């Protein structure tokens, strides 16, 4: 089977030009080239490239000639944006008043200011001449993550939007959601990010939850009414293209996985993917590249969580990435929340028939999650391997995602999951909960701690009725805020991820340098400061009495 390339562009997604420039390693980061703008029509650029390589021995062109070619035909990245400051930004949104600690309050004000530097408006020229850009046009301005991430990202935007809503920037938040609705209508789903090289894979589906956050703040039913057809379309995409049937104890269940049937190396990490596949057959290399893209679709790119070795076990290395062979707890918890939210939206608008359809989907999901992902012996939800037809026992914060999504039918499961977490070895760190307990060198592994995972865990714990769970939720919030704050004091920056060791240290590992900015980090910090602002302090360390490690 010949798989499609990441997109049709013969410059940004596949072909000799892309391969020649990327393998010449003219830039530190492969994303640099694919973010450059063409100065003229792609046909002109391609024909000039053909002239350059024509007659060159083995098509090798000296780096100096390639650089000349690039400066003749391309502009530096970032030229597609207009300077833009969100017009709905204003001083002193109300939530700041609820932050008791003076240092944290003044820091929160600075974080609130950061929306101005992360705001981007796309030039109309991108809409008039899309063939000259890798950037995908969206009609409304966006808040970007920051650093090398110059464009919108799908799941990051959920925490950004929640932060914007606290900052009372409802117009900016609505515009970002409208961009996603526009993308669903154009592609049938939401691409990983706002570049053509991301257009054949998605990211964790948070759009319905974005609309829910917006509705909770504004009570704008009309907005929900206009959004619903796209929300339903996106849900269908996941059910039609990312679902599998699994049989457990003689009963069949439908659950979801990440799966990207797109070949060739990721253009933005071209040489990483090429080098990783060295020595593999053509088929094995194509297979590996689909699985890496599925890893990117999960948002966890990359992690030992997706490694499946020759025996089907959870060991190996990046080359053993088999994302599509696993049924992830967090994706299924998220879809469970999507189903509940969609039922609620339809009911709010008086469409009982459609609401009942989603009630039914939710019941089927709950049954499937409990039959396949819930592990009674360990008292928690675990990813399920389609290779071995068994649960994967390793600790990840995502094991607790059904708690966050309230995707369980018996209260006792919540309490058991709390005890699992306390004994997991994941909450014994002063600076946040690590992504796993395995130091694979990948960025979604130990010792890195990521903002969205902290937030989901804390929300899940705070939703439980027990004081013990609420206290652990608060302690984790206190540790996380302290880590972010200490790193801010030291580096004058917010990072995309942090290290659970040391005092306020950015994370590392993976295929690019840690990035500053940073959209979801700021969104999560603002949410925790709003939720626990009366109790959080800039200098306290949780007592650790609830922590126990294995
Ligand atoms: O260029 C490598 C990869 O970078 C992105 O992934 C990471 O950053 C995203 C933006 O903050 C975030 O959503 C993701 O969870 C991170 O792992 C990108 O999303 C990948 O597709 C890309 O290959």
TrEMBL record:
Belongs to the glycosyl hydrolase 37 family. Its EC number is 3.2.1.28. GO terms for biological process: trehalose catabolic process. The keyword Electron transport does not apply. It comes from the Eukaryota. This is Trehalase. It catalyses: alpha,alpha-trehalose + H2O = alpha-D-glucose + beta-D-glucose. It holds the Pfam family Trehalase. One of its GO terms (molecular function) is alpha,alpha-trehalase activity. Keywords: Glycosidase, Hydrolase, Signal. The keyword Signal applies. InterPro entries: 6-hairpin_glycosidase_sf (IPR008928), 6hp_glycosidase-like_sf (IPR012341), Glyco_hydro_37 (IPR001661), Glyco_hydro_37_CS (IPR018232).
